[in-house]
Amino acid sequence: MQKGQCLCASIHFQINKKIETIYQCHCSLCRKQSGTHANHATIVQANDFEWLVGQDNISTYKKDTGFTSSFCKKCGSPVPNQIGQTHLIWIPLGLIDGEIYPTQQLNFCLSSKANWEKIYLDSTDYEHLPTWNETIDIFK
Length: 140
Ligand SMILES: [Zn+2]
Ligand SMILES: [Zn+2]
Fold this sequence. Notes:
The chain contains two helices and eleven strands, in the order E-E-E-H-E-E-E-E-E-E-E-E-H. Helices cover 10% and strands 35% of the residues. With 140 residues, the chain is mainly beta. The protein starts with a strand and ends with a helix. A six-stranded mixed β-sheet has the order 8-9-4-3-10-11. Strand 6 (58-62) and strand 7 form a beta hairpin. The protein has helices at residues 28-34, 132-138, and strands at residues 2-5, 12-15, 21-25, 39-45, 49-53, 58-62, 68-72, 81-82, 88-92, 104-108, 124-125. The structure holds zinc ion (2 copies).
């Protein structure tokens, strides 16, 4: 089990499963959403996720394309959100308290990474986003 919270601690959540796969997405949208070279996240099944407190403090911004960013109204931390109409929940790893020991680390959208970013990772890389079926398979 793994717990997470935002910067101001008004939003808390829990993941009832070991986190096996994490990824960084280096696309321009994820750079803006995270404020840095990439977002660093995992995806879990909705069954394995629960909000503990503070859901009222979540605000959500959605682009016309569907790209969605949810964040704490008080402190601005990105917070987990449901991916579209799926049963998958996106989790920003920086909110998780304690250590995690993933067995797989992936990079997405390396073809559009910022030129100032250097990557020093031993990981599986994708030049673009994986297809939806690949994504489901990766985070099953
Ligand atoms: Zn907060
Ligand atoms: Zn991205």
